[in-house]
Amino acid sequence: MIDHIGFPVSDYQRSLAFYTKVLRVLGYGLVMEVDAETSGGGAHAGFGRDGRPQFWITEGEPIVGRLHVAFAAADPEAVDDFYAAAMAAGATDNGPPGLRPHYHPNYYGAFVFDLDGHNIEAVCHEAGLR
């Protein structure tokens, strides 16, 4: 249903460094950057894999309120790695890695607040081995 999503961040360079570190452990990377002159607004960074940006941050006035974005993780270990990388990069805990059976029996996720306070999650739906 969703092709890509993006939102403005309060400090583009700081958020670029944060998401580069955090998404790397899930197998995603910086796919492209568009400078402010080209975009006609703020600088943009698109993250994804296989040359396809699916998650974007944009230099600009941050959104008031909290967004929730969940990134797919290949396995529970990737969720654990995401949480550790996010915390090391300055995130705030919003729920450590673990099963969330209230969603479904194999839902293994971790939640952090990013540098602008957005609820960022990594989730694996095949966590039945834990």
Automatic annotation (TrEMBL):
**Residue ranges annotated for the VOC domain, each copy included:** 1-125
Going by the UniProt record, its keywords in alphabetical order are: Dioxygenase, Oxidoreductase
Q: What are the recorded GO MF terms, alphabetically?
A: dioxygenase activity
Among PROSITE patterns, the record links this protein to: VOC
PANTHER family linked to this entry: GLYOXALASE FAMILY PROTEIN (AFU_ORTHOLOGUE AFUA_5G14830) (PTHR35006)
Tell me the protein's name: Glyoxalase/bleomycin resistance/extradiol dioxygenase family protein
Q: What species is this protein from?
A: Alsobacter soli
Task: Tell me the lineage of the source organism.
Answer: Bacteria, Pseudomonadati, Pseudomonadota, Alphaproteobacteria, Hyphomicrobiales
